[in-house]
Design goal:
With 179 residues, this protein is α+β, with helices and mostly antiparallel strands. Helices cover 35% and strands 30% of the residues. The strands form three sheets. Strands 3-6-5 form a three-stranded mixed β-sheet. Strands 1-2 form a two-stranded antiparallel ribbon. β1 and β2 form a beta hairpin. The longest helix is centred in the middle third of the chain and has 17 residues. The chain is elongated, with a radius of gyration of 25 Å.
Length: 179
């Protein structure tokens, strides 16, 4: 069991560093060392070609309100540099997390409430490359402003919007939030 878990851990470490086709084999053999019989662990690793990023695609999981057509385009435009950064590089888990963090920052900067990355898929694109397909749920776009001396926390605002959504209100919450 220790040998199997060690091999799986080693495979994960290679996978995390971009070697998606790694092969790890291990065996426990008895050998004579210095006149004594000892158990020796032998591990054979074949890395294979590292997996590179062929491209990044952003996909919106639900159609955004078409009355505000520039919102998705502005969101993607704000990520242009981040979307191109991993192209051609080895796909490591760290690089994938960096991309997801950049998308999260853009979601926050775009004032999307309830926005999230639904999943990131690796779509094969040749022998040793993949395209990353990042599915994003934008949530609701809210523009924040200040008026008067009252304040509402982000948590309270999210809760209010969720209550309104469940009650069947339309997705334009600006008027309701002002009240």
């Amino acid at each position: 069991d220790d040998l199997k878990s060690g091999i799986e851990e080693l495979k994960r470490a290679y996978f995390d560093r971009g070697y998606r086709k790694v092969s790890v084999k291990g065996s426990l053999v008895r050998e004579r060392v210095g006149g004594k019989s000892e158990l020796v662990v032998r591990i054979q690793v074949q890395e294979g070609e590292p997996t590179s990023v062929a491209g990044v695609d952003l996909v919106e999981t639900r159609k955004f309100d078409q009355t505000r057509p520039g919102v998705w385009k502005a969101f993607v435009g704000g990520l242009e540099e981040d979307l191109l950064a991993p192209v051609g590089a080895i796909l490591t888990q760290e690089r994938k997390r960096d991309l997801e963090r950049a998308i999260d920052r853009q979601l926050f900067a775009g004032e999307f409430v309830g926005a999230k990355i639904v999943r990131t898929d690796e779509i094969p694109s040749g022998d040793s490359s993949v395209r990353l397909r990042v599915s994003v749920q934008l949530g609701d776009s809210v523009t924040f402003g200040f008026q008067g001396k009252e304040a509402i926390s982000r948590k309270e605002l999210s809760s209010l919007i969720e209550e309104m959504r469940q009650a069947g209100f339309p997705e334009d919450y600006e008027e309701a939030i002002q009240k």
